[in-house]
Amino acid sequence: MALPPDWMPNVPMKRVICHWTAGSHSAGETDKDAYHILVEGNGGLVRGRPSIMLNSGRVKSGYAAHTLNCNSGSIGVSLCCMAGAEERPFNAGQYPMTRTQWDALIVVVAALCKYYRIKVTPKTILSHAEVERNLGIEQRGKWDVSRLPFDPTVVGARACGDRLRQQVMVAMGSMPDLPVRSGRDATLETAFRRLLDELWPILARGLEAGFNTLVREILKRIR
């Protein structure tokens, strides 16, 4: 299963966040507005209306608002399923996630990781249910994906996330011919942004200390 090239614009992206729609096995109109890629019950793929490009860098009008306060640099992929599902006691509802959907999700995420050069880690490849724990961004009780209806032995957001990441890495290794984004190296760009994030607090403290010293010198001279 190959993602069409026009589904993957040449922009830097940081992570992939996986969801379920809490709807039927078909992509609804609201679903198409919320996510970049949807996986239907039979494993078929549906492209969401927002382009991945709109979620690159600073949030722009019309972007896919799939994750609260975590949409910049994030690709949203969702499984069409789990309408009426309940977390405790667990009930998968009328449209449970299927193994076919999950297998298709693995291939999609592997293709996105390869193309956007995203390293597979708990902070870059994760489910909506892991965002609060892994990234420290509150998500108001979201629990997708914390159960796999087709495999009841996998319970909890971390367990499902670990299964996702493990299978994505295996898929990437078995599909060496996947396309890779051209242009500026995403790894270097990520490293540069991380360096700026680390240096800015140091610079701010230095400026604050210098300002305080200047104020003290001025006060000495006017007393």
Which helices and strands, and how do they pair?
Elements: E1 15-20, H1 29-34, E2 37-39, E3 45-47, E4 74-79, H2 99-116, E5 125-127, H3 128-135, H4 157-174, H5 186-222
Parallel strand pairs: 1-4, 1-5, 2-4
Antiparallel strand pairs: 2-3
Helix pairs in contact: 2-4
Task: Give a quick precis of the structure.
Helices cover 39% and strands 9% of the residues.
How would you portray this structure in words?
A hairpin with a 5-residue loop joins strand 2 and strand 3. The mean pLDDT is 88. Helix 2 (99-116) crosses helix 4. The longest helix is centred in the last third of the chain and has 37 residues, at 186-222. The protein has a 5-stranded mixed beta sheet with strand order 3-2-4-1-5. The chain contains 5 helices and 5 strands, in the order E-H-E-E-E-H-E-H-H-H. It has helices at residues 29-34, 99-116, 128-135, 157-174, 186-222, and strands spanning 15-20, 37-39, 45-47, 74-79, 125-127. It is α/β, with parallel strands linked by helices and 223 residues long. The chain is globular and about 80 Å long.
- Give the integer mean of the pLDDT values: 88
Task: Report the sheet-strand fraction.
Answer: 5-15%
Run of helices and strands: EHEEEHEHHH
Uncertain residue ranges: none
Annotation, overall tally of beta strands: 5
Query: Percentage of helical residues?
Result: 25-40%
| Shape verdict | globular
> Compute the gyration radius: what is it?
21 Å
